[in-house]
Structures
1.
Amino acid sequence: DQFPKWNPINRETNLGRLQLRYGDALDAVDLFVSTVDPGKEPPLTTANTLLSILAMDYPVEKLNCYLSDDGASKLTFDAVNETSGFAKKWVPFCKKFAVEPRAPEAYFAQKADFLKGQVQSSFVNERRNMKKEYEEFKVRINHLVSDFQNVPEDGWTMADGSYWPGNNARDHPGMIQVFLGPSGGKDVEGNALPRLVYVSREKRPGFNHHKKAGAMNALIRVSALLTNAPHILILDCDH
């Protein structure tokens, strides 16, 4: 008797209209990305995750990306540095032409007609140039990975010759580096970029660091001081 009275309703969020409707009322978001071992989690994969976040269709002043490197790897740090440089080219390209997906590896690998829906005459040339830029970026990342196969006897050093604090992954101070953001430069078209922060929490022998849960707690404390967004989204480095 009840079945004929049912009136099922399907609701779907229209993401394309979200910013148009709410605009400046959108809340800030802190996105947490976690990684530990670049040998098991390739730096190029992590880089693509970061690039897709930085290119999100969201107000840049309300978008903050934090990478937790729980292995204190100099390779991961250098890869993030390279990624921040490439983001200055990739982010404006994505937003100018509304390309999807916004991870460059997935975008350039797709077999679909990349011209579908494109009306700007400059798209073909700019896409070709961006693909070349990405291939050069991949080579630089691959070069970093190759260089880090042989660990120096005295450990890694930084660009200024100082000792890399994370040479002992189980005994090192905390490290925080802001790569992009209000004081981190603009993209190639002069626009602001979302904040990108590298974090490797302090570790000392004899303490239980609680693995990923501990790493996320450290990011919560760092982000509370820097951005303190009301919303947090946690991602793995291969999302």
2.
Amino acid sequence: MIFNPLRYAKKRGIHREALVETFPYVIVYKFYPKESLIFVSSIFHASRNPKKKYRRR
């Protein structure tokens, strides 16, 4: 994700999802190319309800 943040497809708006290979987690993030900035929105366990990935607290 750090070396190629555009590797992962957009899932919802500008959010992208990266799967962690060794653990059952999904990293939801936004990438801002002008600033070369990656903003991690959430780290989500893959066995949980996927509707809660984008929920605001």
3.
Amino acid sequence: MSTPLPAGRYGGRARPRPSRRTMAVLGVLVVLAGLGVAYLGYRNLGSPTISGRVVSYRPLAPDRLAVRFTVTRAHPDRAARCVLRGRAGNGVEVGLTEYPVPAGPQDTTLSVDLTTTRPLAAADVYSCRYTE
């Protein structure tokens, strides 16, 4: 003999489990979403496809510097923009300019005059990115 359970004490009946087909479809969707996130992460955070480096710089005036820099890119058919900055002897940023890099050869060397707020000790390419 069994006694009926008190109503409301143990909750309702268990919900039916999803079918195997539903679980398989959900599993495939989760894997595809993970692959998509991994691809985007690699594309945005992986090895850079464009980089810049200063080749030389020379003072033109106490507050101006001529900077030659080279941009190396994986997609030379795309235009880019590079940010160059000047730093004082104590490391403080004293000048900043954004310079367009037209589509062209894989390694492109350009010159730009960098105006600064104080005399500077060094210049560097802060970043480069594609514009298209």
4.
Amino acid sequence: MKQYRKPVEKPLLEIPAGKLEDDEDRVEAAKRELEEETGYIAKELTHVVDMYGSPGFVMNNYQYILRIM
């Protein structure tokens, strides 16, 4: 998806993303976010990896979910 981001003052190509609700399964959250942001409904998703974007600076944890086509 393309979305304008003010800090860089241009549209960027991004993947759908979001936050987990309390006690929400990460794959179910990925399905929900995909539908909310794109309108697409995924039938089967697979968790790939958990990563920290910049652990020396912030504690953001990224969980990558994949749909194999």
